[in-house]
Every structure is written in C-alpha cells, then in structure tokens.
Design a protein that fits this description.
The complex is a heterodimer.
Chain A lengths: L2 H14 L2 H27 L4 E7 L14 E6 L3 H8 L6 E5 L12 E4 L5 H22 L4 H7 L8 E3 L5 E3 L2 H36 L2 H5 L4 H38 L1 H29 L5 H44 L7 H23 L4 H8 L4 H8 L6 H29 L9 H7 L5
Parallel strand pairs in A: 1-2, 1-3
Antiparallel strand pairs in A: 3-4, 5-6
Chain B lengths: L4 E9 L4 E10 L4 E5 L6 H8 L7 E6 L2 E2 L8 E4 L11 H11 L4 H14 L15 H13 L5 E5 L7 H16 L3 E5 L3 H7 L2 E6 L2 E7 H7 L4 E8 L1 H6 L5 E9 L2 E8 L5 H8 L3 E8 L4 H9 L7 H6 L1
Parallel strand pairs in B: 3-8, 3-9, 6-7, 7-8
Antiparallel strand pairs in B: 1-2, 1-4, 4-5, 9-10, 11-13, 11-14, 12-13
Helix pairs in contact in B: 2-3, 2-4
The chains are: A alpha/beta, B alpha/beta.
Chain lengths: 447, 316
C-alpha cells in the first residue's frame, strides 16, 4: 500500500476518533445555531412593553401618536400629581406631560416622567413621532395638501444592470455575492488557523514523542509532512461538512418547534414578497426588452445569478484548498523547528501577519475594488486566498484571477519546498530553539 | 561474500561542526557489528545516513553491493536511541501502522505481530494505549516493530537502555537468534560488556573520525601487553626476587599468605620462562593471561593513551 496514503489515513482517523473532535463537531453547530436562533428568540420573548400615559394639555396629539409593539400610548386628562401617584403600581411606566401650545410655544418643552430609565430608542421614537405630528400640523397650517406631499416623496428604486461585452444587459446581485465572498473569506481564515495549528501541534507531538525518527527511517520526511497536511485537511473537510449539516438540522428543528406560528407568517410574508419582487422585476425587464416574455427573462436572470454563485464557489474551493496547503506547510515547518508549543510564538507571528493583514485590506477593497493595492494583494500568494475572495464579486478581470491562482500555486510549491527543507532538519534537532539565521541555513543542508 | 553494508569515505558537516570525517566501515553479513564511540562522536550521524534520514556531503554507501536507494529502507530495521510511540494510539493500531510503513501487507503484518506478541507474552496489550504501558513495556513493543519486517540489516542504538536484566537477556537472545536466522546487526552502545558478549566486529569512532576497526578477537589480541595474573601461595618477596630482569611486577594484592600479582613479561620472554623462575618459591594457584577488556581499549583509544591501564584490568 502506498505509504503516503497510510500516513493520511492515520492522521485522519486518529483525529476523527478523538473525543475532542466529536465535542467540537457537536458544539460548533450548537453555538452557531445558537448565535442565529437566540437573538430572535430573545427578541420574541421581549415583553418589556412601555405603557405611556399622555397628559396632553394642548390637545394636539390626541390619538395621533402611533402605537408600536413596544410602546403604547394612552391618553388621560388627570392632573400630573394623580398620574404620578398611579405610576408607582399602575399599568403605566411613563408619563408624558405636554404643557401649553406645543405648536407655537417653543419654550415650554414636553416632559417625560419614568420610574425606570427607558432605552434611547424609546426616547427617540417619542420625539420623532411628535415631530412628525407637529410637521403635519404646520403644513396644514400653511394649507398644503398632505397627500401631495406624500406623492412627491416617492423613493427611487435603482435597478443596476451590467452591460456585458456583447452588449447584453445583466442583472447582478452584488450584495449577495459580496456577502458570500466575505463569508467565504472568513471561512478560509478560520480553517487555515484552526487546522494549520492542528498540523503544527501534530508535528510537535511526533517530535516530543520521539517517534519521528522511527517513521522517517521508513518514509521520507517530506512524505510524512505532506501526509499530515492532507490528513488534517480531510479532518477539516469532514468537520466542515458535519457542521453545515448539523447546523441546518438544528436550525430547522429549533425553528419548527419554537416558531411554528411565526414560521407560517414568515412563509406567507415571503411568498408575498416574492410576488412583489417578481412583479417589479418583470416591470423593469419589460421596459428593458419588450420582445422577450417575462418567464424567459426570469429564467435568464436566474441563470446569470447561478453562474456567479458557481464561480464564487469554485474559487472558494480553489483558494480554500491552496491557501490551507500553503499555510499548513508553514505551520508544519514551525512545529518542526521547536520542541514545545510554548516556543512557537516567535515563529507564528510572521505567519499570521499576512492573514490578519488580509482582513484589514479587505475592508478597503469594498470601497475601491480596483485600487492597485487591491490588485497587488489579491495576487500575492500569502494574502490572495482571503483578499481575492472578497474582491471576487466586483468582476475581477479574468487575467487577474488567472494570475492570482497561478501565483498561489507557485507560492504553494515554493513554501512547501521551503517548509519541507526546514521540517526535514528540524524534526531531528532537539534542545536549543533555533534562530531565524539557523532556519535559513537548514534550507541548504544536503538531503 | 559481498558485505551487506559498505560505507566509503563519508563526510558530513553541520553548520558549526564536522560530524563525520572520512569514515569508512564494512559490515559482513550475518555478523554483529559494534559501532562504538563516546557521546557526540558521530555515531548517530552515521546511522542516520545509513537509514537515509540524512545524506552524506561526500562519500557513498553500498547496501548489498548496490548504491543505497529508497527501496532499501524496507530491508533495514532501525531502533533509534531516542525512541517513542504515539501515546494516544492503541498498541495494536500503532504496530500495524508502523509495520505497513515498512512495506508489510496488512494480513501479513497481523499474522507476524500475533506471533511476536505470543512469544513475548503480551497478547493482552493489543487494545491498550501506549501511555498505559511502562517504559520497559513500550521498549518491547518498539523492538517488535523494529524486527517485524525481518530486515536484512538491523540497526540498534543502545537497545538495552530501559530494560530490566531479565528483559535485556530476552532481547539479547532475540538478537542472537535473528543473527542465526540470517540478519546482520549493527549495534551501537556504550555498554562494553555487551560488546564483548555479542559483537563479532567493531568500529570505534571519536570526534568524527574512525580510530579503530576489526574483529573483537583481533583487537583484543593486538592490545594485549603480555601481562599475566598469577595467584600463588608462599613468600611474596621470594617470588619477586625470582622474577630477575625477565619480568616486571605491576601490581600485587595479598590475603594472608595467598598473593595475586600482575606481571608483565619483558623482552621476548614466554610464560613458561616465568613459571620456571618462580616455581621453587611459590605454589601456583592460577595463572592467566590478561586480555584487555573492550572497556580498557575504548578508554585508551579515545584518550589516545599508548599503553593500557593494566590496573583497571586487574581489578576487573
């Protein structure tokens, strides 16, 4: 049997069989699902409604302040003293007193009494609605037709269409693609860190166990390193897939159990939304090209967005794989150079800097995706896995993408070669922590 | 007969020091070859080159007359001095893995392992984790892994360290049995007693250079200094006087009227001359030639002494 395959098998099964793998696999989606479900659930449970008693001496606001789920306005006429007495154990937790003529008298301000400090959003809501009411009064005072104002204030919806080289219009879904690009970049970042450091720990384990000399008398050190990197990659892949599957399962389970009613509402709402969207779209398309029938156009639109998604996914697979391989090799080299995990800090930092820098660069790419900085870092192999994923939705020229991929493969080969050289010498060196200069010398030892 | 291993003029340099300087050794098949030398002499560097873990800067290694190549790995078994196993893995999984890395098929590895485990009476260890075993137990497992693929050349670096005397004897017997079955063994150790007991040939390396090699018998003969140990009953002064100028008294030890002396023959005198000279004055109880131990030879060669310290030979 192929020795490399044997090593991959061992690295894979020894990790997958561990209890910590099982725990992480289960805990990951629970946390992730929790992250998605808990806020919704909390918001649903949020019963902190505010009952506001409005004592309006001006009479301007009577029944004019709109209620929301959180804030309910009740209008009263009692004196402020009796109202304040009620505040203690009555249904109201706030009293708003509006003295005098709010419309013309700008000096007397409304007063909000409370027994428990309300959030800033509550205060803001109250002032906003009051401003709106007064705004309408003033317009009416100038005998301006409110319906005309409403009509005049129509929002503009911008349909963005890309004109392709062969002159066709294409609807692109930049926001969604961008979100996917960012999500992919984050996934790559985490996988590199999580599993790269697993490779490193594996190397240190073999070294401190002193089993490594036995193994390298049977296989080439490079084979051992490669087997470990690939084995851990499969572990990562397994965990990733399990996470996705489990997350989806948990999410559906929780949503069906907890939010049965809300779910029905949402579905109804969604289908309505879809209808509206379809209408909008067909309207837009009809203006654009009246000859084609609506259905065909929708299909085309779907196809276009599908192509974009598959491109993103293919790039994700590529950058994920080669990004991981490149960094895992570097992590393996670090592991081989030290005797214990405590000694790794000095060497880890330079490896992690490009990764972290990628994310800082990614922020600026969103605002200017074609700057020369964006171009450079999406081609430079140490940063390209993350930067290119973020840049991808902004129509990167094909030659740049090809160059970036080519450079990444070259970078992968180069860094794996370097790592292999350091690894080969490092695994048999015990004692003193090597300096950078010594690592450099190891590159030129004869195998 | 082609030697199983020929190391020719090997040089190996590391960044700041020379590990091996023009070292050559020849290992005859089916012999036990002792690779001796103080710590840091270059033994491990040489062993790693033979195992193809590292390569020499200059020189070549022949295995069975062929240039050493990756395929030879499967014919070599190596037990490093610094050895260990995966702590979290079970014994069974681990030995199967290491056996397959040496090119054994799964079924074959399993069958052979069962035999070995039975032989060492450790069948019930199969499912135990390595970390549950004592150091000596781990060593046993490691030894099995080293010899399982029936290597033609077995390289053992300090194989007895960590073993109690009973298990050390067990391993010793195994080594001899393997040799009788056709294996060649390179054996690196500081334990000179076991060198005398086991080795047919040796090479002594110090400070990256080979100082001495040959058969143990020949080497000990060469380092003989024509010295004899005589135990007798009688008068010590009379004995000493009768030596004349033919021999020199080096050391003496007396218990009541039984004396033990070390005598070095001078000129071309033979043991019989000595005996004739002293017979009238003493009742000889024993008469032995002192053959220097490997320990003495080792110390003397490493410290570059011209004569052997016979005092230590005497007290041995």
């Amino acid at each position: 049997m192929n020795k490399l395959l044997l090593i991959i098998q061992r690295e894979y099964f020894s990790r997958v069989k561990k209890k910590s793998f099982l725990i992480m696999t289960i805990l990951g989606p629970v946390l992730l699902a929790g992250l998605m479900v808990v806020p919704v659930w909390l918001a649903m449970r949020d019963k902190t409604d505010h009952q506001v008693l409005v004592l309006d001496h001006s009479g301007l606001f009577l029944d004019k302040l709109p209620n929301t789920k959180q804030i309910k306005f009740t209008y009263g006429a009692e004196s402020i003293q009796t109202a304040k007495a009620k505040l203690k154990d009555g249904p109201f937790d706030m009293i708003m007193e509006i003295k005098g003529d709010a419309l013309n008298d700008t000096k007397t301000t409304p007063v909000l009494y409370y027994k428990k400090q309300p959030g800033i959003s509550v205060e803001q809501y109250i002032t906003n609605t009051m401003e709106n009411v007064l705004f309408d009064y003033r317009l009416q005072g100038d005998s301006i037709d409110l319906t005309k104002i409403d009509k005049a204030r129509r929002p503009v919806e911008l349909l963005t269409l890309k004109v392709t080289e062969d002159g066709k219009d294409e609807k692109t879904n930049t926001e969604i693609n961008m979100a996917i690009g960012f999500a992919c970049a984050i996934a790559i970042y985490f996988m590199i860190f999580l599993y790269g450091s697993q490779v490193m720990r594996g190397v240190i384990e073999e070294k401190s166990n002193r089993i490594v000399e036995v193994i390298v008398s049977s296989v080439k050190p490079f084979q051992l390193m490669l087997g470990k990197i690939i084995g851990v990659a499969f572990v990562g892949l397994t965990q990733f897939i399990l996470w996705i599957v489990l997350t989806l399962l948990i999410q559906t389970a929780v949503t069906t159990v907890l939010f049965k009613d809300q779910l029905a509402d949402t579905v109804k709402h969604n289908s309505q939304m879809e209808k509206v969207m379809k209408n909008d779209l067909s309207a837009g398309i009809n203006k654009m090209d009246k000859v084609e029938s609506t259905n065909e156009v929708i299909e085309l639109f779907n196809n276009v967005s599908n192509i974009n998604i598959s491109k993103v996914l293919m790039c994700f697979a590529f950058y994920f794989l080669f990004g991981y391989l490149l960094y895992a090799a570097l992590f393996a080299a670090i592991g081989s150079a030290v005797d214990s995990e405590a000694d790794t800090q000095q060497f880890i930092l330079p490896v992690t800097i490009p990764l972290i820098a990628s994310f800082i660069i990614a922020q600026s790419i969103v605002t200017d995706p074609d700057s020369s900085m964006a171009q450079f870092f999406s081609i430079f192999p140490l940063t390209s896995p993350i930067v290119m994923m973020v840049r991808l939705p902004f129509d990167v020229p094909v030659w740049e993408l090809a160059l970036s991929m080519f450079c990444l493969v070259i970078g992968f080969l180069f860094f794996t070669w370097v790592a292999g050289k350091i690894y080969r010498t490092g695994i048999l060196m015990y004692g003193k922590k090597p300096t950078w200069k010594e690592l450099g010398k190891w590159l030129f030892y004869k195998g | 007969m082609t030697p199983i291993l020929e190391v020719k003029n090997i040089h190996k340099n590391y960044a700041n020091h020379v590990a091996l300087k023009d070292v050559s050794i020849v290992v005859e098949p089916q012999k036990i070859f002792g690779l001796l030398g103080p710590n840091g002499a270059g033994k491990t560097s040489l062993i790693r080159i033979i195992n193809q873990i590292t390569g020499p800067d200059k020189g070549e290694v022949l295995f069975n007359g062929e240039h050493l190549a990756p395929k030879h790995v499967d014919y070599i078994g190596y037990l490093p001095e610094e050895r260990g196993l995966y702590k979290k893995m079970s014994v069974g999984e681990q030995v199967m893995y290491l056996a397959q890395l040496k090119g054994l098929k799964k079924s074959e590895a399993k069958a052979r392992l069962q035999q070995w485990f039975k032989k060492f009476e450790i069948e019930n260890w199969w499912d135990k984790k390595i970390e549950e075993l004592s150091k000596g137990m781990q060593q046993k497992v490691q030894f099995i892994v080293t010899v399982l693929h029936e290597p033609k050349l077995l390289i053992l670096d300090e194989p007895f360290s960590g073993f109690d005397p009973i298990n050390a004897q067990l391993i010793k017997n195994e080594i001899l049995e393997l040799r009788d079955k056709g294996a060649t063994i390179i054996f690196s150790t500081h334990n000179m007693g076991s060198v005398e007991e086991l080795c047919d040939n040796i090479a002594l390396i110090n400070k990256a250079e080979k100082l001495l090699d040959g058969s143990v018998k020949d080497i000990r003969k060469t380092y003989k200094s024509n010295t004899f140990k005589v135990t007798f009953k009688g008068n010590l002064i009379g004995f000493t006087n009768s030596l004349w100028a033919g021999a020199e008294l080096l050391a003496k030890k007396s218990e009541e009227d039984v004396h033990t002396v070390t005598v070095k023959m001078l000129h071309q005198n033979k043991p019989n001359d000595l005996l004739q000279a002293v017979l009238n004055n003493a009742e000889i109880l024993s008469f032995n030639e002192i053959v220097p131990s490997m320990n003495d030879i080792f110390i003397s060669v490493v410290e570059n002494k011209t004569t052997l310290n016979t005092q230590s030979a005497f007290t041995e």
